[in-house]
Specification:
With 100 residues, this protein is mainly α. Helices cover 98% and strands 0% of the residues. The radius of gyration is 42 Å and the shape is rod-shaped.
Amino acid sequence: MPGRSYSRSKKGGAVSAEIDTLVKSLQQIQTDVNNAIENVKILENKCDKIEEQSIPEQQPQVKEIDDENENENENENENENENENEKKSEETEINDEETD
């Protein structure tokens, strides 16, 4: 019987060593995951800073486009006004000719 008892404890010891190895591996994986999470947070912060810096650069571009659109609208309005004035002038000339 002592042989049996010895072999059981030896098997138990081998399993215990494997469990210890697995526990250490899991702890290392957990450490790696925590480090990866920290790195992701750092990258998110950097990304946010870059976005904040790029927003002011984009706003003037939008302003320039708005200014261009305003200028185009003003030009169109001026052209329409000129056309209306020309028509009125022509009508006035025609009316003047008819009254003569």
